[in-house]
Write a structure and sequence with these properties.
Chain lengths: 328, 623
């Protein structure tokens, strides 16, 4: 199986287990996309490992015919890091959710970003705890009534994209489950990135948080409520791309494209994180929610620090320090 | 190098008294370099062919106020011509660098014991800081000790007048004056320390010169001052067998043992850990040896074991090291390793708990947690090292079991073993056993959870192996296929399978050895680090004709299969341990034997006389 005579196809990456997500769940679209991208990467199937935590999305490894590890709640980044350090040849994909990755696993999330381990982390953000049947997550919109917030969520929303960029993510992108082209672009770029590749996928939980992201994902309203980020292009949105983003004394604001001369231009390769970080804080309804690649820069990869050097001679090692010979 | 050069000095005509063994304690302020001084003295003694055992005792405060009793750092060492099993109970010699060190340690000194004090440090201010209203050296009640007042600070300053060092640098040298003096007092060769200094200050010739000078000045002071009328040497009883030796702490031995286990199993060592007292030195040591090991300093204890579980999935010999609080945090991941049947070593260098407890003090109170501290029926193998050098051997055993049975193995050491040191007969790589593992590459008939009929271990198919792609995880697995299974019948089967697998590990054990009188009426059962002190007590009791024997258990889960039969032979049994009776409860529950307990939970190891007293009272009860 290591050197297939025929190129790998999506089918090669689907396990015999039928996905068991709710009908209409956004997870299906991401599974479809990732298993479509994997065969195109020129990596033998046995070199893929999919590592997840706990939650609806973390069922993912069972559905891919690769090596997989369904670990414990919030801790997938730690297992993935150990696996990658033990075997740097692997293409390691972490699957997590907003509860798993940002709440119980928030600490690991930050450290994964700052270390720049060469692996992918896909955050399925449906802004709700689905597996435990509908409690508020760190990304649930304030005011939302859930089983644990009968009067509405009063915690402020966590901004995973801003957190990832602040922690030094070298690749950070956002997609959503109802735009296939966007998902393909983002997943392909993430797969090609050397270093940590963070992808936030906003997806719909049809059962416990239906239509929460509708303003940004619905075809009828998304052009007004979201920005499609494209490298080198002006940061614009609206029905005819008639609105753009400019800075007013460092504060981003919406301007009319036909009048403003200072519309910001997107630059994913900027070393400075200011623009990416600023965009990462945009969120509907205050500002349009950006989609696409926020940041893509190169940097030293974590696992390169662990290369074995020197001769592995136990006898020499044992005698290091002060030792002496006794003749008996 | 069994013979040693003299110091290039002729010992004055002072008489030399021969002793069998000596317990010495160096005590001073945290900043006085007592650990280093003790360490040097130990190396010098070990290199003279003497047996040694050490007990560093330092405060957990980062740096308590100088001169206070809270800031006293001590290093105790027993050295002798025969076998030495423990650092000793009461001390023969106290080197006290300030009033606080004098105050906190005097009670441990034997009648007739020697005290060398740095008289210069007995200033009004230091006396006040130590809580003395007047100078104790001038007071009553010291007649039973031999007190030597040495001007260690002034002698150091005088020795360095022309060396152009700052007052601070001069002050930092005074421990070497005390060391030189102690070397003279016990007729040690100073060569090991001189060589160490030469290496350490290779790039700083001024400091090298100063330290060598001060060391010699200390020796000269002992030799010439009218103060000391005699010096001492150790009567040699046994010669070590031929070989290469070093002096080693338990933590260093553990580090080298883990590295050796990886090499002998043909795997790369992966250590994922988070700093925690008193386990961090294992991490410090392994990270120096990149050619053998990948060492990952994780963001927390959970990430430490998480990375190790990932590395175990990836085919490494995976290890995480920690102490009690860290073991608590790792519980859920140990459960995952049990469920996914991955080989994993968890080293717990126990300290006094609960919670933060006494981080620098020793205890054996994590036994229950190691055996049972997980949710669900979650069996793991639990081993305990018996001495600093055994921390090496036990890692090889832990790896052998983990890799053969595909199971997590918890190795318990403790602060006493981790920081304590003894002489280690260095093995050669070729004489260490090869360690086998279950790495699997055959695609034909592959099933991730197909269990070996004897060991109940499963095949270890690691990512990167063509054709063996499979998924594992924390959900219950179907025996054989490894598919997620919610079947009640399968769950019961798998719970039994995991339990039987761990129970079956007992077949690997060597027969249990009993130490002491073959006609003993009392059996002392200990585990782990109490081995030395119990042996010391039994040896002494036997020499007085007291019929007692002892067992040191290194296998706590599963217990050895011959244990029950052995224990039934003795009219009386006591379990001695540094907790409130954890092994005691296990033995009573498992064997329905009416065993007694001797529990000590002061943060300090047992003293031999505490064991002896208990045995005497039990023997008395038999009459």
């Amino acid at each position: 199986m290591s050197t297939p005579t025929t190129p790998l196809t999506r089918k090669d990456f689907l396990s015999s287990v039928d996905p068991r997500w709710c009908p209409g769940c956004g997870c299906y679209a991401v599974l479809q996309k990732i298993t479509s991208v994997m065969p195109t990467l020129g990596i033998p199937r046995e070199n893929f490992a999919v590592i997840s935590g706990i939650g609806c999305s973390s069922r993912f490894p069972y559905y891919t015919n690769t090596y997989g590890f369904h670990t414990i709640h919030g801790r997938a980044p730690t297992v993935a890091t150990g696996l990658k350090l033990a075997n740097p040849d692997l293409s390691v994909w972490v699957i997590t959710g907003d509860g798993d990755g940002l709440s119980i696993g928030g600490n690991h999330f930050i450290h994964l970003m700052r270390r720049n381990v060469d692996l992918k982390i896909i955050l399925f953000n449906n802004q709700i705890y689905g597996l435990t049947k509908g409690q508020a997550s760190p990304t649930t919109l304030p005011g939302t009534k859930t089983k644990t917030t009968p009067t509405g969520v009063f915690d402020r929303q966590m901004a995973p994209m801003a957190m990832a960029i602040a922690a030094g993510a070298t690749f950070a992108a956002r997609a959503h489950d109802s735009d296939g082209e966007l998902l393909t672009e983002v997943m392909t770029a993430a797969a090609a990135h050397k270093g940590i590749a963070f992808v936030e996928v906003m997806l719909n939980c049809v059962i416990f948080n239906d239509a929460a992201m509708d303003p940004m994902t619905n075809k009828a309203t998304r052009s007004e409520n979201s920005i499609r980020l494209r490298h080198g292009q002006p940061i614009v949105f609206g029905a005819d791309n008639n609105k753009g983003i400019r800075l007013n004394n460092m504060t981003p604001e919406i301007a009319n494209v036909s009048e403003a001369k200072d519309i910001l231009r997107h630059d994913i390769h900027a070393e400075d994180t200011s623009l990416a970080f600023s965009l990462a804080q945009f969120a509907h309804p205050k500002m349009p929610t950006p989609f696409g690649i926020f940041r893509q820069v190169t940097g030293p990869v974590y696992e390169d620090n662990f290369k074995s050097t020197g001769e592995a001679d136990l006898d020499k090692l044992f005698k290091s320090g002060t030792s002496w010979v006794e003749k008996g | 190098m069994t013979t040693h050069e003299t110091n290039g000095e002729v010992n004055s005509s002072k008489k030399i008294e021969e002793l069998d063994e000596v317990v010495i304690r160096f005590a001073g302020d945290s900043g006085d370099g007592m650990q280093l001084t003790g360490d040097q003295f130990t190396t010098a003694s070990a290199m003279m062919g003497e047996d040694v055992a050490t007990l560093p005792d330092y405060p957990s405060e980062i740096r308590a106020p100088a001169g206070t009793v809270f800031g006293v750092s001590g290093f105790q060492l027993r050295f002798g011509g025969g076998e030495v099993f423990t650092p000793g109970d009461e001390i023969d010699v106290l080197i006290a660098m300030n009033p606080a060190a004098f105050k906190t340690n005097l009670a441990s000194l034997k009648d007739g014991g020697i005290v060398v004090v740095n008289e210069d440090a007995f200033t009004q201010r230091n006396l006040e800081k130590a809580g003395y209203s007047s100078n104790p050296l001038d007071g009553e009640g010291l007649g039973k000790f031999k007190i030597f007042r040495a001007n260690i600070t002034k002698l150091t300053q005088n020795a360095l007048t022309d060396k152009q060092l700052s007052p601070k640098q001069v002050d930092l040298c005074k421990n070497f004056l005390a060391l030189g003096l102690t070397y003279w007092l016990f007729n040690r060769s100073m060569d090991p320390t001189k060589n160490w200094l030469k290496k350490k200050f290779q790039a700083k010739p001024a400091l090298l010169d100063a330290n060598l000078h001060v060391l010699q000045a200390g020796w000269n002071f002992g030799n010439t001052a009218e103060m000391f009328t005699s010096s001492y040497s150790i009567r040699k009883q046994e010669k070590r067998k031929a070989g290469v030796y070093r002096y080693i702490t338990g933590n260093t031995a553990a580090a080298l043992g883990l590295i050796a286990a990886a090499k002998k199993s043909g795997l790369r060592l992966f250590l994922g850990s988070y700093p925690i007292t008193p386990a961090t030195d294992i991490l410090h040591e392994v990270v120096k040896h990149k050619q053998f090991a990948t060492v990952f300093q994780a963001e927390d204890e959970i990430a430490g074991i998480g990375s190790a579980v990932g590395a175990a999935f990836g085919g490494a010999l995976a290890v995480t090291t920690t102490s009690g609080p860290g073991l608590s945090l790792k519980s859920e991941f140990i459960g995952l390793a049990v469920m996914t049947e991955l080989p994993l070593i968890i080293v717990d260098v126990q300290r006094a708990g609960p919670s933060t407890g006494l981080p620098t003090k020793t205890e054996q109170s994590d036994l229950f947690q190691a055996i049972w501290g997980r949710h669900g029926e979650s069996p793991a193998v639990v081993l305990a090292a018996s001495s600093p050098r055994d921390c090496f051997d036990i890692m090889l055993e832990a790896a052998t079991i983990a890799l053969k049975y595909m199971t997590p193995v918890i190795v318990l050491t403790d602060g006493y073993l981790g920081n304590g040191a003894e002489v280690w007969h260095i093995p050669s790589e070729s004489e260490l056993p090869e360690i086998k593992h279950n790495r699997h590459t055959k695609t034909e008939g592959f099933q991730p959870y197909k269990h070996d009929p004897e060991t109940l271990g499963r095949p270890w198919a690691v990512p990167g192996t063509p054709g063996l792609e499979h998924r594992i995880g924390g959900l219950e697995k179907e025996d054989g296929s490894g598919a997620v299974s919610h079947s009640p019948v399968n769950h019961e089967k798998m719970c039994h399978l995991r339990a039987n697998k761990v129970a079956g590990v007992a077949r690997e054990y060597a027969p249990t050895t009993v130490y002491g009188d073959p006609n003993a009426k009392v059996l002392v059962v200990g585990w782990g680090s109490t081995a030395g002190v119990i042996k010391t007590a039994v040896k002494k009791l036997n020499s007085e004709g007291t019929p007692v024997a002892s067992i040191n258990l290194r296998h706590l889960n599963p217990l050895p299969s011959d244990l029950q039969t052995i224990m039934k032979k003795y009219p009386k049994i006591v379990v001695a341990e540094n907790n409130l009776g954890q092994l005691w409860q296990i033995i009573r529950a498992q064997y329905l034997l009416d065993v007694e307990k001797l529990a000590k939970i002061t943060g300090q190891p047992f003293r031999a006389d505490e064991i002896e007293t208990k045995v005497h009272s039990m023997i008395g009860g038999l009459k």
